[in-house]
């Protein structure tokens, strides 16, 4: 098959080049704008049956006027002085700031309203309400206890990671930064922007900046590494152009499929596709070109060498790509939407780079001809002496020096002498990091602010809020009680909620609760009961108080048909940041306490839901933990099956899987150690996405190198002794696999160019893991084991471990010490 492909490419290379150029131009032309087909958000990718999403659906039905989505928070502070905010400061909020915000709403088409399809009308602003200290329902809650700060809440109808929020946040930022507006601000008054929507805007902006920086550094690093490795600029451009075309086509095809609704795409998925294609694609091209140079050394013509290269390495490249596609494709079975979409997109994209490596790269080699290896040679044979450098020059001698060959020659000799000692020493050095992984595996960060630079507006604003309000005030934990048999507006319903509140307050410190707000305590545990206050009033004041009570009641108890008086809410303000790992532990304690304290007549038929940032993150953790376990098994199982099919040796295939899994555990341990050491006080754990993407990519890519080595060992063992075959394969593949590993690691390290901490952690982990596979696992852990196996170190167990066909004819092994003599 690949012999036919090689001959076809060499014969019709001009046609192939034209086809690729037309393909990339045509597909790019018809593909829709990328931003129009990607989905934003984070919690929107949770399974539909997630408890927090079910709770949000009920909330929207019960309280349709309160669009539960996200908000922009404006913090108005007066830090200096004892009296705090002055009357003129409050007047500024109501008479100047709020009208300016309402003007922004008018410019954007008016307040957001929900359409019949539960979406927001496109011609409207995404601002649904503006609340200040004068708000009848929650106005009192917006004033800090120390009277030094007041919050202005701009409620939005969109999720916090929706891209449309950026326009609204920027409009408010422009207002606050406007010179004319600044003149209206009282001296000493500070205004800061915060809120979950501001966090989302900063996250999207950081992700876009990371994507641009990643793509730029990926290209620059690949160019630099290819020129260093090849020392031939034209030859270095061939893999780069091949992968560039592949990435362009892959992203365009994904955009088309996304527009048709055949695949889902999340914002930021292009970063993963680009990085994996550059890393894998350049590797494929490197192996093809390396074999081409070997064929030239056998006195083949330039085009004969191209055809032979495709014929000899084509199956290995296809097997390698198939293994990677299958391994990464197992993410399709994840429940979390982003993992599922990433698996589909990366696996599909790898198909394009494989085809390009086997057709476009050889066609470009045919186009370049003998000039491909310039300045090394202008002849059919690649020889330094025939080039423009004189053989006696220092540069020529450096270029002739086979540094990689010398390294692997030394490694091979060492392995021949003491395979057992080298294997054991390597294992013992790396094993402590495995223990670190096992100890810290659950220590993952689900925080958003911890991902962002400290100077970002949302980070600065959040610190301003937390200086005057409980940390959990930025995202209350809302409890929804639904019971068709209970009227929460009558005395019995109120007493049940009041009893639950009292029980929670008894364990306030243990549960980490800063405040509780519900229909009996609408303004918190320290405020007086509104109904009690109303009883003491007379005349117009009493009417106003009754009207205020009605507004408060509708805020905490549903007035919607079918749900009227049968759904109530309770807001808990936790002491911890709602996005912190500690807040999830608090949530579990609260759930147990509520379950224990819920009155008996409510327990019978009450559906209880927890919603808010903390509840959503808890669901995210639950789903992704399950996904991690499921995908780990599927990836290991699928790659093992592929290895068995390719190698027909289950025992050796199992060892190869274990070796790469060991590499993953070591890499994760090293990553934990490094990022903790960089910031011991603020390190909250690795980003939750790191273990999943690291595992799937590292296992799949790591087996690529094993496949290259083992297939070459099989080839060498046909004419050599089993051990000599291992050594010969190590020497012949060492240089090229090292080059591939360095380029792959360089590509992955480009993820560290962005500002998102999670991306930096993933980039470091992938780069380190690939280098570990390239320089430790593949050249030491695997060959040392095979040498011991083929020498019979494992005695009678050897025949069960994959060496049965060799042990019958081989003598018993000598000790390591004898080999050293």
TrEMBL record:
It comes from the Bacteria. Keywords: Cell membrane, Membrane, Transmembrane, Transmembrane helix. It comes from Gimesia algae. It is found in: Cell membrane. Residues 235-367 form the SSD domain. The gene is mmpL8. The keyword Transmembrane applies. This is Membrane transport protein mmpL8. Its main location: membrane. It is a multi-pass membrane protein. The chain crosses the membrane at residues 12-31, 213-230, 237-257, 269-289, 310-332, 344-368, 422-444, 629-647, 654-678, 690-710, 736-758, 764-790. GO terms for cellular component: plasma membrane. Belongs to the resistance-nodulation-cell division (RND) (TC 2.A.6) family. MmpL subfamily.
């Amino acid at each position: 098959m690949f012999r036919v492909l090689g001959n076809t490419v060499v014969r019709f290379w001009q046609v192939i080049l034209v086809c690729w150029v037309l393909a990339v131009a045509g597909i790019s032309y018809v593909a829709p704008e990328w931003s129009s087909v990607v989905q934003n958000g984070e919690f929107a990718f949770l399974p539909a049956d997630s408890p927090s999403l079910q709770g949000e659906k009920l909330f929207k039905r019960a309280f349709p006027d309160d669009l539960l989505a996200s908000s922009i928070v404006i913090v108005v502070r007066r830090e200096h002085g004892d009296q705090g905010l002055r009357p003129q400061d409050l007047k500024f909020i109501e008479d100047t700031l709020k009208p300016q915000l309402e003007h922004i709403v008018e410019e954007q088409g008016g307040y957001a309203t929900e359409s019949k399809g539960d979406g927001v009308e496109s011609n409207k602003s995404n601002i649904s309400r503006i609340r200040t200290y004068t708000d009848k329902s929650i106005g009192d809650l917006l004033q800090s206890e120390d009277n030094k700060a007041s919050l202005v809440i701009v409620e939005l109808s969109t999720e916090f990671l929706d891209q449309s929020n950026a326009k609204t946040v920027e409009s408010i930022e422009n207002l606050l930064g406007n010179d004319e507006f600044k003149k209206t601000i009282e001296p000493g008054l500070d205004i800061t922007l915060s809120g979950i929507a501001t966090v989302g805007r900063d996250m999207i902006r950081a992700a876009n900046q990371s994507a641009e920086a990643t793509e730029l550094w990926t290209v620059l690093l690949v160019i630099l590494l290819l020129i260093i490795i090849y020392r031939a600029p034209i030859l270095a451009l061939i893999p780069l152009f091949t992968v560039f075309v592949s990435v362009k086509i892959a992203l365009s095809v994904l955009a088309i499929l996304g527009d048709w609704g055949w695949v889902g795409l999340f914002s930021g998925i292009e970063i993963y596709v680009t990085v994996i294609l550059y890393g894998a694609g350049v590797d494929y091209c490197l192996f093809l070109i390396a074999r081409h140079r070997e064929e030239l050394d056998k006195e083949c013509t330039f085009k004969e060498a191209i055809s032979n290269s495709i014929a000899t390495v084509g199956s290995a490249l296809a097997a390698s790509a198939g293994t990677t596609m299958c391994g990464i494709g197992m993410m399709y079975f994840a429940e979390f939407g982003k993992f599922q979409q990433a698996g589909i997109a990366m696996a599909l994209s790898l198909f394009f780079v494989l085809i390009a490596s086997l057709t476009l790269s050889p066609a470009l080699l045919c186009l370049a001809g003998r000039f491909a290896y310039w300045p090394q040679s202008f002849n059919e044979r690649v020889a330094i002496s025939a080039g423009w450098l004189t053989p006696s020059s220092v540069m020529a001698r450096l270029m002739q020096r086979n540094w990689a060959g010398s390294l692997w020659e030394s490694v091979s000799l060492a392995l021949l002498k003491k395979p057992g000692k080298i294997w054991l020493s390597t294992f013992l050095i790396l094993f402590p990091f495995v223990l670190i992984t096992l100890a810290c595996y659950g220590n993952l960060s689900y925080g958003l602010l911890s991902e962002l630079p400290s100077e970002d507006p949302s980070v600065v604003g959040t610190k301003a809020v937390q200086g005057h309000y409980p940390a959990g005030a930025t995202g209350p934990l809302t409890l929804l009680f639904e019971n068709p048999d209970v009227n929460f507006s009558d005395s019995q319903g109120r007493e049940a909620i009041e009893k639950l509140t009292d029980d929670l307050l008894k364990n306030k410190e243990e549960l980490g609760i800063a405040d509780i707000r519900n229909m009996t305590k609408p303004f918190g545990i320290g405020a007086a009961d509104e109904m009690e206050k109303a009883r003491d009033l007379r005349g117009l004041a009493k009417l106003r108080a009754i009207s205020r009570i009605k507004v408060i009641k509708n805020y905490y108890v549903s007035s919607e048909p079918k749900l009227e008086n049968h759904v109530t809410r309770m807001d808990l303000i936790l002491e911890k940041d709602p996005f912190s790992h500690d807040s999830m532990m608090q949530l579990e304690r609260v759930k147990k306490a509520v379950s224990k304290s819920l009155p008996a007549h409510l327990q019978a038929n009450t559906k209880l839901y927890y919603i808010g940032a903390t509840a959503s993150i808890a669901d995210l953790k639950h789903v992704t933990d399950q996904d991690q376990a499921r995908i780990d098994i599927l990836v290991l199982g699928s790659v093992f099956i592929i290895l068995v099919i390719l190698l027909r040796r289950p025992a050796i295939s199992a060892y190869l899987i274990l070796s790469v899994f060991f590499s993953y555990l070591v890499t994760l341990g090293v990553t934990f150690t490094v990022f903790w050491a960089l910031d011991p006080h603020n390190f909250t754990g690795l980003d939750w996405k790191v273990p999943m993407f690291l595992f799937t990519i590292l296992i799949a890519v790591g087996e690529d190198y094993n496949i290259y080595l083992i297939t070459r060992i099989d080839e060498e063992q046909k004419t050599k002794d089993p051990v000599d075959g291992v050594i010969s394969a190590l020497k012949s593949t060492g240089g090229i696999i090292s080059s591939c590993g360095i380029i792959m690691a360089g590509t992955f390290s480009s993820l560290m160019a962005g500002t998102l901490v999670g991306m930096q952690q993933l980039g470091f982990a992938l780069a380190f893991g690939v280098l570990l596979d390239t320089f430790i696992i593949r050249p030491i852990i695997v060959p040392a084991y095979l040498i011991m196996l083929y020498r019979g170190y494992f005695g009678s167990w050897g025949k069960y471990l994959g060496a049965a066909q060799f042990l019958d004819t081989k003598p018993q092994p000598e000790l390591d010490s004898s080999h050293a003599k």
